[in-house]
Amino acid sequence: MTDTKHRVAIIGCGRLGQQYAEAYADFPDTEIVALAERNAERRKAVGERFGVKALYPDADSLLRDVVPDAAAVVTPTKYYKDAVIACAQAGVKGVSCDKPIAASLADADEMVRVCAERGVVFAGGNLQRAMSEVREAAQRIESGALGAVEGAALHCWGNQISGGGCQHISVLRLFTGAEVDEVIAWAAPQEVLGSGCDQGLTVNGRLHLTNGLDCPIYGKETPYGGVDVWSKEALVRWDWGPPEILEGYDDAGARLRVDPRYSDYPWREHYYLGTSIRSFLRSMETGSEPWVSGHDLRQALEVAVAAVHSARLGSVPVKLPLEDRSLALYPAPYRWLGGDATGRPQPVEEAAGRAS
Predict the structure, then answer these.
(1) In the chain, helix, strand, coil percent, each to 5?
(2) Does the pLDDT of residue 267 top 80, yes or no?
(3) More exposed terminus of the chain, fewer Cβ within 10 Å: N or C?
(4) Does domain 6-128+268-293 have CATH number 3.40.50.720?
(5) In sequence order, what are the residues at sequence separation of 6 or more whose Cβ sits closer than 8 angstroms to the Cβ of residue 293?
(6) 356 pLDDT exceeds 70?
(7) Residue 2 has what pLDDT?
(8) In this structure, which CATH number among 3.40.30.10, 3.40.50.300, 3.40.50.620, 3.30.360.10 belongs to the domain 131-259+299-333?
């Protein structure tokens, strides 16, 4: 940390927005100076909970009165683009949003472009790509300490590939140090494939990476549910938590699970959301790359869009980057529109921090 006290606004105060607020309220170098939330009861409850008096119904009204150093945009996905761009245009130094970054690639492109043109740090949020153990495993792979990477596999890519599935793609890109440049996919059921929404969609296929690797996608459940990357000497397995490392062989020729001896990280109380936020703040202070960037979120969305596009065309190999930036993939209604609009509102008592 530096001696800088970052002034932070939280835009969107639903369940995840409250998790962001808890983290920013705990950090000694951040101060929540304003909140924006459309639901008036929740806005008042969250403001009282975190001792914030500058309360607004939306990003535009907040930014007319307050220009924070950093803004966490945690609205439903439908509203990310307008809020992120409004923050960048208002002079906010850094802005973050969550997954999926958008439905259409064109909207994701515009968010990345506007932030880049204005020199605004654009970060992603609550992704395991930012988990300290994931970062340390990636460093060991990159250093060559675990041998030259020879293969990768992605397990159980389904249900919501533009949302939770972007976790897989983000970890895969980190572990391999490569981009996806071709996708071929099969997806089911057909009624979901044709719906424009990925909720309940199971995807099988293959990703080709810029480093030459072919990565199979196993849509159905296997014994694992994340990303494997391997060399002759070792296998690194991320399965929604600190990665396992298997290194060396036993007498039967099977890989041996070893204690990875990951380093301690000082912000563990907020898990990988905390490490993501700390990386975001460090990027604002030093110009370093955030552990999850808006670019990372866009790349994950593009792979998901390309997979569905390939499946709709009859499993045709699709090259990335996609030429048609109007292509889109909508997440589950809860992610796209939020709980209030989809029959899953948060009780006010919970938002106020009083729920048992």
Answers:
(1) 40, 25, 40
(2) no
(3) C
(4) yes
(5) 122, 123, 124
(6) no
(7) 66
(8) 3.30.360.10
